[in-house]
Write the structure tokens for this entry.
Amino acid sequence: MTDQDAGPAILTRGLTRRFGDLVAVDHLDLSVPRGQVYGFLGPNGCGKSTTIRMLCGLLLPSEGDIQVLDLDIPRQAEALKQRIGYMTQSFSLYRDLSVRENLDFVARLFGLSRGRRRERLDQLFHTYRLGTLADQLAGTLSGGQRQRLALAAAVLNDPELLFLDEPTSAVDPQSRRDFWDVLFGLADGGTTLLVSTHYMDEAERCHRLAILQDGALVAEGSPARLKEEMRGVSLLVTTANPRRAQHALDDQEGVRSCAQIGATLRVLVDDEATLATVRQRVRDVDPDATVAVTDVNLEDVFVAATLGRPEHGEARS
Amino acid sequence: MIGFSVHRLWAVVTKELRQLKRDRLTYAMIVGIPIMQLLLFGYAINMDVRHLPAAVVDQAHSSRSRQVIDELHQSRVFDFLYAPATSSGAQTLLRNGDVKVIVVVPADFEHRLTTDQPPLQLIVDGSDQVVQQAARQLSQFPVRAYLRGQSLSPPSSPVAVAAYYNPRRQAPLNTVPGLIGVILTMTMVMFTAIALVREREHGNQEFLITTPLSSAELTLGKVLPFIGIGVIQTSLVLLLGHLIFQVPVRGPLLDLYLAALVFIVASLALGILISTVVRSQFQAMQAAIFTFLPQILLSGFMFPFEGMPRPAQWFAEILPLTHFVRLSRGIMLRGADLTSLWPELLALGVFSAVALGVAILRVNKRLD
């Protein structure tokens, strides 16, 4: 199989899924390179989970072609199951079984022999710091511990490709950071990871990102490149009254979005030309306000890609 | 990779047993339900009516009327709790539910004895069928003969009834064989449906589906432990029925277990079918009860099968419990064996096949 490693881990062409009248995934073309952490960024209901399910072969696509690890999905979905791991959005192991029993059960499903099971479990206990929790019921674990257990179960079969569907939604910041360290460790070992998230700081860490909206791909690339290529300018407004300033910018031509961050206002505008208008509007409210251009961040990219698509897309360029 | 693996099946079975061991409530119910029901039904279901609360209105006030009332009292069918002066007073008692029966001795009681007019009047609470039946029996009470000084033996009947298999009309004897079926229905259908839905509801299936585990392995693995539980329950009821109520097993014990096993499979099939229709554990429970009621009412367990209207009988033939009640009564009370009862076994087999077939069709559809 090593000679095929040149091809992408995931390749889709025109992938579409409809539920009745609703188009959950709309002609998605994806190419996920191997050995990277690939992020799926998008609001809830944008089709992230549906796409992941189709890629695993859990859900049949309405249209389009899927190739995962050079297998035709869904036709070869059974063969794929041995080679992928899937960490579901909600905890999907058994709360009334202990950590050891849960992992042992999964190991048996993958057909590991008794000796191999013990060996693999010891490894996982070590890597995921579960050793002291081995005989504790999964239902009594904390959010972070439970998540480590879920990840251990998902990687038990040494998958070449790991899907993680919003893995950190119920976890404190420190655990999230630790978790990402583990993910990068897996990527260094050659595993391809596809992570869906709606946290910007997590998206920032990915090698590459796909931003989805309403089931369609609206932006794709590395976080740095996405920021570079974003059309639009980020302004930082410092004012004593950010709320009134925000109100003054409502419906202003050229202003795409406005978000209050503490005592400042972050304003996304079409171009530098809009800066003067914004400054004037804001000073109408607060004469002491300052407006300055600031670095584009990933949130700006996300907002520009998802909000600005209809009016500010190809039609303007 | 594709196909059926005994190892994976066994992994599910042991996991399931482990969970069952930890689920104390279910565990207690599996053992508790049979014991509770056996005691409840064994002692409580008794169609011979005794001690009906009654009122007596004696308008004759003669020595003979008192004699008759006393004799009725002796029969223990009635407990005369009230003796209102007027029949309207008695009717109030009846309406309030204080009494089920009013015995009226009319003022011309002595005169009526010499004519064809009925000497006594019984007013009964017709809203209770059992009371109505008891009153009908009592209308045979030989008042005249008794007062003529004859002995109170029942009037000789033109037809002699000989009750084989249960000559003393002991209720537990009739109840226990069917009760095995009732208990198995309850636990097998409900627990399997719930156990299967739980996996889905808790999101376990979402993960399992990405492992090599097939849905056939999962379903079978989850259901197999229940066969063992069913056999344990059967043994428990048989043992307790024998110890407490002296219920015999006159036919071959092996045949009885075989019949129970086939019935367990039919009930599990029904539980699996339910699990493919419902979405939550709560719905599973409701659906199980929905199938449970007609089984208990129409199977012949509670009411005589022959007394039901034809369409109800046809419908009852679909229900697995109907056939199991016939099997268990046949083997335990009449000493029959499966060679003579094979049509019932066949019916259970057909039911299982159809239920499982529909379930498989539904599962394939859902994976779409």
